[in-house]
Amino acid sequence: MANHFHAIIFISLLFAFLSSFNIVVSSPDIVIEGRVYCDTCRAGFETTATTYMEGIEATTDSSGTYKLSVEHDHQEESCAIQLAKSSQNDCSEINDDRNSAPVVITHNVGIASNVRHANSLGFLKDQPLSNCGQILMQYALGTEE
C-alpha cells in the first residue's frame, strides 16, 4: 500500500514538473501566412487569371506566399498585414479593397496551430488582360456581347 502511494506522488510531481517546464519554455512564435497577387483582370478578387507575386519585400516566394514570424503575444492589440510596394511595375496599383488583412496574434484564441492565415492581398494590373471578359463570364460577372 505504501509503495502505491509513493508512485502516485511521483507521477503527480513529475506532471507538476513537466507543466512548470512548459511554462518556462517560451511558446513558439506565431506565424502569419498569406498570399500577395496581381489582379490581372482588375476584378477586385482572385480569378483563374490571377498571378501571384514573388519578391514582395523579400518575404513572398514564387507562389506569392509570405510567412512572417511574430514574437510575443499581442492579444490586446489590433494587428493587420498591409501592402506597401509592388515587385512588378505593371501591377503596382494597390487594390483599396484588398490592401490589408486583420490578423489575430495570440495563442489564446482556441487555435491549436501557431499559424494564422491572413486574407490574400492584391495589386491591380495597369491594363487588364485581353481575355478578361471571358474569364469574368465564368463568375457570371462579364457583360454579354
UniProtKB/TrEMBL annotation:
The keyword Disulfide bond applies. PROSITE patterns: OLEEI. Residues 1-26 form the signal peptide. InterPro entries: Allergen_Ole_e_I_CS, Pollen_Ole_e1_allergen. GO terms for cellular component: extracellular space. The keyword Ligase does not apply. Keywords: Disulfide bond, Signal. It comes from the Eukaryota. Belongs to the Ole e I family. This is Uncharacterized protein. It comes from Zingiber officinale (Ginger). The lineage of its organism: Eukaryota, Viridiplantae, Streptophyta, Embryophyta, Tracheophyta.
